[in-house]
Specification:
Blueprint: H1 3-11, E1 27-35, E2 38-41, E3 46-48, E4 51-54, H2 56-63, E5 69-77, E6 83-92, E7 95-98, E8 118-124, E9 126-132, E10 140-143, E11 158-166, H3 172-192, E12 201-207, H4 210-213, E13 222-230, E14 236-240, E15 243-244, E16 251-253, H5 255-259, E17 263-267, H6 277-281, H7 284-292, E18 298-307, H8 311-328, E19 332-336, H9 342-356, E20 360-367, E21 388-393, E22 397-400, E23 405-408, E24 430-433
Parallel strand pairs: 1-8, 2-4, 6-23, 9-11, 13-18, 13-19, 19-20, 20-21
Antiparallel strand pairs: 1-12, 3-4, 5-11, 6-9, 6-10, 7-8, 14-15, 14-17, 16-18, 22-24
Length: 454
């Protein structure tokens, strides 16, 4: 038995063909995961015995080459530390390709050729966090300890934090783009420094041609995933192979491409339910559907769609996305939202049109039900939406104690979404809604919260 097949069977993941070979018709991706348990400064960047050592000057040299930055600082934030990061822009997991071929994050820091196959090195347990005053009211907070740490997965990662200050007069879109690219470059840099390190685990995935995938597992229902991407514009953006998602029609994508950085966050939206790039790389809905493939259903594909502003665009995208689902002949759709308010309309349109086409739906969203939980949870609703998974109420209040170390700009607590004038108290404590905590009500389910019936 090969190492690949052995590792997959041990992890109960998704790899079926015993005879397929690299370069054949099947798209296969192997994630070689190196577990990172600590993060320290050093003279040379590399990984040894689970410790990621980082050369600070090399990171600075990499990112300060951008002329749009007036100043860049680099810091470390470790699980359990009395550390607060604010305002958080994005989080990226360090990844790079192994061997020749296109790199990760296509259309951003590598060529636009498709990804999602071959071998990819992953530094699991590490993250690059970008921090800067871009659109302050729609960024987030990460506390590495205390009550907020219970609501964000990034309190458990070893974080390299990049803090950016732009040159005077820089337009915000240019500033956001520079921060985004810098975070991706730093993530790839860290992963490349670990090339040659023996992985602690290996995950393998495949995407078969549709004509074969549709014939698999007769008797099981066919299910697809409808993946809604934030694309309302005005820095509410997501990128697919470098293309702004607002410019696309709904499309089929191999989920292995998602794991290789085909989808990148460019969002300055509420921190609680913003899909950071880290979430896209580790989409738990896709992972769960892949794991249950062949057991509970036949997972036949992933459809990406956008979230629009105008009614005509909402109608166009929802109709086209459901048309693709009908073309696949699926019996069911899992639909995940990103954001809230205006995108609730896109979510309900997708749901109603799919249900009316005879396709059963399950929706994954979060709620804005008021601080007392008594308000309507979504801005739109329909009787067809009768199977909904909630990621929690983003309006719930939380008190964050003072931290010994602050990375970034703590005064933004008063203007951050979920905060208010007076959120930042004189002693350094902060009172905010969960909306301000990065990833607290993730609509991909990348959260520690769960629901119970009472």
């Amino acid at each position: 038995m090969s190492r690949l097949k052995a590792s997959v069977r041990e992890q109960n993941l998704f790899w079926h063909d015993e005879t397929g070979r690299k370069g054949g018709r099947y798209v296969k991706l192997e994630l070689q995961k190196v577990q990172i348990k600590s993060l320290v400064w050093g003279e040379k960047t590399g990984v040894k015995n689970g410790v990621l050592t980082v050369c600070k000057q090399e990171v600075l040299d990499l990112v300060t080459a951008d002329p749009y930055f007036h100043k860049v600082d680099v810091d470390l934030a470790l699980p359990g530390d009395s550390t607060r990061i604010i305002p958080v822009k994005d989080v990226v997991e360090p990844r790079c390709k192994i061997g020749k071929g296109n790199g990760v994050f296509p259309g951003m820091i590598s060529d636009v050729d498709t990804v999602g196959e071959g071998e990819t090195l992953v530094l699991e347990g590490a993250a690059v966090v970008t921090c800067g005053k871009i659109v302050g009211f729609q960024e987030g907070i990460i506390d590495m300890s205390g009550p907020a740490a219970e609501y964000t997965p990034f309190a458990a990662t070893c974080n390299l934090v990049l803090v950016f200050e732009p040159v005077e007069g820089l337009e915000r879109h240019d500033y956001e783009a520079s921060c985004r690219i810098a975070g991706l470059k730093a993530a790839e840099y860290l992963a490349k420094a670990a090339l040659g390190t023996k992985p602690d685990s290996v995950e393998c995935y495949e995407a078969k041609p549709l004509n074969e995938a549709m014939k698999e597992h007769p008797g099981l229902p066919k299910v697809a995933y409808l993946y809604m991407l934030q694309s309302q514009g005005l820095l509410h953006d997501t990128y697919v192979y470098g293309v702004d998602a607002k410019k696309i029609l709904p499309s089929l994508i191999n989920y292995t491409e998602v794991f290789d950085g085909a989808i990148i966050s460019g969002n300055c939206v509420s921190a609680c339910d913003k899909n950071s790039t880290y979430y896209h790389l580790n989409n738990p809905i896709i992972k769960a559907m892949a794991e249950r493939h062949g057991k509970d259903y036949n997972f036949v594909g992933t459809i990406i769609t956008n979230e629009n502003v105008t009614l005509a665009d909402k109608k166009r995208s929802s109709s086209y996305a459901v048309k693709l689902a009908k073309t696949l002949g699926v019996d069911g759709l899992v639909i995940s939202e990103e954001g809230f308010g205006n995108p609730d309309t896109d979510l309900i349109m997708n749901c109603k049109k799919a249900e009316n086409a005879g396709i059963k739906t399950v929706l994954v969203t979060d709620e804005y039900a008021g601080r007392d939980g008594a308000s309507q949870s979504l801005a739109d609703a329909a009787k067809e939406a009768d199977a909904v998974v909630t990621a929690g109420n983003a309006n719930a209040m939380i008190l964050l104690p003072p931290m010994e170390k602050l990375i970034g700009y703590p005064t933004f607590a008063d203007v951050i979404a979920g905060g208010f004038q007076g959120s930042l108290r004189p002693d350094g404590s902060i009172e905010v809604e969960l909306q301000a905590i990065t990833g607290s009500t993730s609509e991909l389910g990348f959260t520690k919260m769960s629901a119970v019936t009472i």
